[in-house]
Amino acid sequence: MQTFYYVHTGHRIGLDRFRRSSAIIKSLGDVDITLLCSDFRIAQIAKEYGVQNSVGIDVVRNIPQISHHGDRLIFDSDEANPIMVEDMKNYFSTFIPIKNDEIAVDETFFINEKKSIKMSYFFGDDDYEKDLEKHLSFLDGLDIHLQLGFYYFLDYEEMLKEKFSNYFEFEEYEEMIKKTDILITASPQAVLESLASHGRPIYIKREDYSDDFDSLFKNLNVPIIKKFDKEKLTSIIETIDNQDYQNIAYLSNKITGIIKEKFNL
Q1: 100 pLDDT band (50/70/90 cuts)?
Q2: pTM above 0.85, yes or no
Q3: Domain boundaries in the chain?
Q4: Secondary structure (H, E, C), 20-74
Q5: Considering 55, 150, 174, 195, which has the largest number of Cβ atoms within 10 A of its Cβ?
């Protein structure tokens, strides 16, 4: 019996779920898990995130081509309809769905490093429609570092590098999170990692993203900005010292314990 963890990734969804999945897999220790990614590119570099076994499978329907009846599956995706979910429950001996707003942050972020970068901007790893470029005026007047994403096009990256005198390459993402004081981001996972690192994130709500994290971020006192409201951003930055951010605990929803309990570990 094998154990698989399927995660939905790609140039239209980004890497938030992947970053969460790698944190969960690492927290499970020596449990032998094969990560199944819906994108071959990230599967090829998963070892850099502590995931020893990973396979790119293109689409969710290819899971049975890798697995066998009676195997175990952790499922981190919104792709499946109710019929598909029921089929997977019958196919796998243990089927564990991960909710979109589950919290799981890699333990490496829970270090309070010196915040040598005052402000950074990370739109996300996915920007197929080049929305970052469309809303550059949102950042006018800010002395800010840019974090480049994983799925950006080559010509797009070069244009952005010309626009920002200071920027982080994709490989420098973890360093950026740890060293940035104020993180402006449209990535829910980056918000959580910034909080873990004792940063002060500001969440930009993208219209193409779900509302699943809104209540959580409000409870954590993370400012939320919609429709790239420049005036609100300016106001938040000016008063951010009064913002009572809440800390998050390592794997605060105890998802690792839930998985171990269902796997009888």
Answers
A1: confident
A2: yes
A3: 3-101+254-262, 107-242
A4: HHHHHHHHCCCCCEEEEECCHHHHHCHHHHCCCEEEECCCHHHHHHHCCCCCEEE
A5: 195
Q: Quote the DSSP letter at residue 241.
A: G
CATH number of 107-242: 3.40.50.720
CA–CA gap between residue 39 and residue 10 (Å, rounded)? 6
How is 113-173 classified by DSSP, letter by letter? ----EEEEEE--S--TT-HHHHTGGGGTT---EEEPPTT--HHHHHHHHHH-SSEE-GGGH
Reported as a single tens digit per residue, the pLDDT across 124-169 is 999 999 999 999 999 999 999 999 999 999 899 999 999 999 999 9
CATH code: domain 3-101+254-262 is 3.40.50
Q: Element (H or E) spanning 5, and its range?
A: strand 3-7
Other CB atoms within 10 Å distance of the CB of residue 56: 17
Q: How many CA atoms lie within 13 A of 209 on its CB side?
A: 26
**What local confidence, expressed as pLDDT, does residue 159 receive?**
94
